[in-house]
Amino acid sequence: MTRIIDFHTHLDERWLHVKCDSAADMVRTLDRFEVEAACVFTIMGFYEPCPAHNDALLRRADQYPDRLIPFATVDPKQGRAAADELERCLANPRFRGVKFHPWLQAFAASMLRDTMLDVLQIAARHRVPVLLHDGTPPYSTTYQVANLARWSPETTIVLGHAGSADYVDAAAQLMRDIPNLYGCYCGPRAGDLRRLLDLAGPEKILFGSDFGAAGWRLLPERIDNVLEAGLTDQQLELILAGNAARLLKLDERPLAQPLLPHREEAR
Predict the structure, then answer these.
(1) Residue 69: which CATH number?
(2) How confident is the model at residue 61 (pLDDT cuts 50, 70, 90)?
(3) Number of domains in the chain
(4) How far apart are CA 189 and CA 225, in angstroms?
(5) From the CB of residue 199, how many other CB atoms can be counted at a distance below 10 Å?
């Protein structure tokens, strides 16, 4: 089986009143399904002050620095303070990206253009990707997120759900037409991967599961959606790991330790 890097997971203590898996739980799940590493995002940091949640996410991820790759978040409604917080986080090389959830964070990027441009340029300077939830209104249609890639062509922008259910065709066309726009296959229906692939090409698609917030069963289900799509070995390698490794600069900046040392008995 080809290597796998999950580009879209969540690692937090809770989602509102629902308790989430711990870092150890997450790594056991990664081990069970032979996933090398996962990009991890906060949940409560989309609702509450970001700095404390960025710090908490880093502490959790640092329990397994060779497996869990934290992405910072900031609240662009805070203006200059958001840019300062992102600079603070990205000064730590453990943070390999930025995650926004405009729907939960309640902001329209078009209304905060100056701050968002500052944030995107900071990410570009640190050479990290920016992933945004997409595929749902308000604030998070695929078109709205794709606009950010046009605003800042030097920044790598990732559609967090590659259009989700309703915007897959739009996502595929936008990824094809905008050089710095990528899509995370995390949520579209099983058959939609072929559509994304045919229009955008295998170099523009990353694998993501969204597990950690909604339970571990999402991970094998979404791995199967890729494996059963009838792709070539080269396409599978790019989508399941190669593209993620390239955007995360893993060849230049390897993770803290060799991958997969924490083999634990499957649950």
Answers:
(1) 3.20.20.140
(2) very high
(3) 1
(4) 8
(5) 17
Which H or E run contains 222?
helix 218-227
Residue 263 lies in a domain: no
User: What digits encode the pLDDT tens for the residues 180-213?
Assistant: 999 999 998 888 999 999 999 999 999 999 999 8
Residue 256 lies in a domain: no
Number of helical H runs and strand E runs in the chain: 11, 10
Rounded Cα distance between 197 and 202, Å, is 6
Strand partners, 19: 14
Compute CA distances 39 → 68, 118, 160, 253, whole Å.
Answer: 6, 23, 12, 15
- Domain hosting residue 93, numbered range: 5-247
Q: In the numeric block, which tokens belong to residue 36?
A: 């090398």
User: What single letter denotes the amino acid at residue 62?
Assistant: D
CA 155 and chain centroid, separation: 15
Both tokens assigned to 113: 């253009």
One-letter identity of residue 199: L
Does pTM top 0.85 for this prediction? yes
